[in-house]
Design brief:
alpha+beta; five-stranded mixed sheet
């Protein structure tokens, strides 16, 4: 038989946290175990080979069987619910990457449940008609074409009560391409189909097709109305590489701004006025380019346009690749991002090049990042690598920011008896919205709501969705049952989800107002020179909010810490790799209340050594 390949990637919190040590069983269709694997510190398993059927079957539109072999998977990890995935498709010669997203156990539950995910058939194999409708004339809704990052996908037909998920746009495109067509097709066929998929999604966003009609999502996953998206679907290397290169490019007619309404269907069992998916294969076999293929189905004056306007990307791709011996602020940006990502992905090597200089250590860090995230490991920061680094940096930094916000708000200071509903305002609403945001990073389908302090219509919808997902009466009111469930999930995450890794002998510290390097050296029983060396600093100037590495090898049994604004025992424990309970015990504290300027003893037993 032919052979395909499979890699498992286990992560949580929107890829901000890799899950090491996850036990994975790969099974055939009868659930006979073929491999037993374990994820490494990056959340990845080794690549394995699996038998499948011949590649030629996936290139034949007349073939009535399935041109791949399906496998199943079970994933187990302590402190997380388990996951069973059915229907992982393995194609001849293709490398498949199966994402595994595990959910932390809630508080007070130690026995995991087995969540199930069924991937199912590809849209190409479906016989149901497609009813993709778009604007009859070009509307002028948005001024510019913007990549929605994330894009909000409704997992059902428009009027269904299904949940919404938010997806990094390139990952959305990869998923749709792998859900719609076969990854074995000729490159020109893949590229033309992926252009149609990108453009269809951007047309929905640009015209606000759903949002202008009162819906709270950008697109559905229904192939009857839009294009097929399957949560948790296997992604193929051939598709992934193309999407990384062109995800910000789209089809438009010359002289127009709007992405073209690029409808499509399989072209065999289902016909339409747009692109024929199977037709692209025969045209590619004739030697046609992707653009020529597209012009065979859409107007001849279409062209490929590009946008660098991507939401949630702090600094856009500079337009030219960064490589060995590059210099400047863009290099420094990448170095800063990688150093922060490295706290969560410690396999990325330390960068000791001067800031803004792309030396050997920067190249090594970039190459390792590319390997971890399935990019071409060439050590060059092109568009795909820049945007992926930016995306992961945003995820890890936002998660860390949410950790700090939670400590400042004082989670669990709101009584479960405190009722909030539409129209409520104040700090308790802010706490509710924060908890929804934080929990939503780990639980797919929980709406991300803006922290405004006002219980508005989006907050009502988010609370209702949360209640539906967790089996509570969906009344849209933050009542006792809702608060209890929020606390149960929140503290389950805090207790069970891993945090950033610490370097041996190094503690991460965020500079507070009034701090100086000399004061930090005194506080942590180290020296100014050692702090400067650990952070590659030439001068002692530091600023509030800056993250420093503090050498801690020479600490005594306990050390003294001065309470800062917004500190809580939990937040201090996170800074110093200990527990709130140990801090309270050492200082004879009976509550979480602290005074600014108060001196606390911090136990060093849990600090890295």
């Amino acid at each position: 038989m032919a052979e395909g390949y499979l890699i498992i990637q286990a992560r949580t919190a929107e890829d901000a946290i890799p899950l090491a040590g996850v036990q994975v069983k790969i099974m055939d269709a009868d659930n006979n175990v073929l491999y037993e694997l374990r994820t490494d510190e990056n959340g990845n398993t080794e690549k394995i080979s699996l038998q499948t059927v011949d590649r030629s079957l996936s290139l034949d539109p007349a073939y009535e069987g399935t041109p791949y072999t399906s496998y199943n998977l079970e994933a187990f990890s302590s402190h997380f619910d388990s996951l069973y995935i059915s229907g992982i498709h393995i194609f001849d010669g293709e490398t498949a990457c199966q994402p595994v997203t595990l959910i932390p156990l809630p508080e007070n539950r130690s026995v995991p449940v087995m969540n199930q995910l069924f991937i199912g058939e590809v849209a190409l194999e479906m016989d149901a008609p497609r009813n993709q409708k778009g604007p009859a004339v070009e509307p002028f809704i948005l001024r510019h074409v913007v990549i929605p990052n994330p894009i909000t996908v409704h997992l059902g037909t428009p009027s269904s009560s299904a949940i919404n998920v938010q997806v990094y746009f390139p990952d959305y495109v990869k998923n749709v391409a792998c859900s719609e067509i076969y990854p074995t097709w000729p490159r020109a066929a893949l590229v033309s189909n992926i252009y149609a998929i990108i453009t269809f999604a951007l047309n929905r966003v640009f015209t606000e097709w759903y949002r202008s009609n009162g819906y709270n999502f950008d697109i559905t996953n229904s192939p009857a109305y839009d294009q097929y998206y399957v949560y948790g679907r296997t992604i193929y290397e051939s598709v992934s590489g193309i999407v990384d290169d062109i995800f910000n490019q789209y089809i438009r007619q010359q002289g127009h701004i709007a992405p073209y309404f690029s409808s499509f269907c399989n072209g065999t069992t289902v016909t339409c006025s747009g692109l024929s998916q199977w037709g692209t294969v025969s045209l590619a076999d004739q030697g046609m380019s992707a653009l020529d293929i597209l012009r065979s189905y859409y107007p001849e004056d279409i062209e490929i346009a590009e946008t660098y306007m991507i939401t949630d990307i702090i600094i856009s791709y500079p337009g030219a690749a960064l490589r060995l011996d590059s210099t400047g602020l863009d290099v420094q940006t990448i170095q800063t991002y990688l150093e922060r990502i490295r706290k969560n992905y410690p396999a990325i090597p330390n960068i000791d090049d001067p800031p803004g200089v792309y030396g050997n250590s920067t190249q090594a860090a970039v190459t390792k990042f590319q390997t971890i995230f399935n990019l071409t490991p060439d050590g060059v920061v092109g568009k795909a690598t820049w945007n992926k680094i930016s995306s992961i940096y945003t995820a890890v930094a936002r998660l860390a920011e949410l950790d700090r916000e939670g400590a400042a708000l004082g989670i669990e200071t709101v009584s479960p008896n405190y009722i909030l509903s539409l129209g409520s305002t104040g700090i308790n609403v802010l706490t509710l919205q924060y908890m929804m945001q934080f929990i939503g990073k780990y639980y797919p389908g929980i709406a991300q709501v803006t922290q405004s302090g006002t219980f508005d219509a989006p907050t009502t919808h988010a609370v209702t969705t949360f209640q539906q997902l967790t089996g509570i009466n969906p009344n849209g009111v933050a009542d006792r049952a809702t608060w209890s469930k929020l606390y149960e999930l929140y503290w389950g995450i805090m207790d069970n989800a891993p945090g950033p890794a610490q370097e041996p002998g190094i503690m991460d510290y965020m500079v507070q107002p009034g701090d100086t390097v000399w004061l930090l050296a005194q506080r942590f029983h180290t020296s100014v020179d050692d702090i400067l060396k650990a952070n590659n600093l030439k001068r002692t100037a530091i600023h509030a909010g800056q993250e420093l590495k503090i050498p801690v090898n020479s600490m005594g049994p306990d050390f003294q810490y001065t309470v800062q604004k917004d500190d809580t025992p939990w937040l201090i424990a996170q800074k110093f790799n200990t527990t709130a309970e140990d801090i309270k015990k050492l200082n004879n504290l009976s509550s979480n209340l602290l005074l600014i300027g108060e001196k606390l003893l911090i136990p060093t037993e849990g600090l890295p050594s």
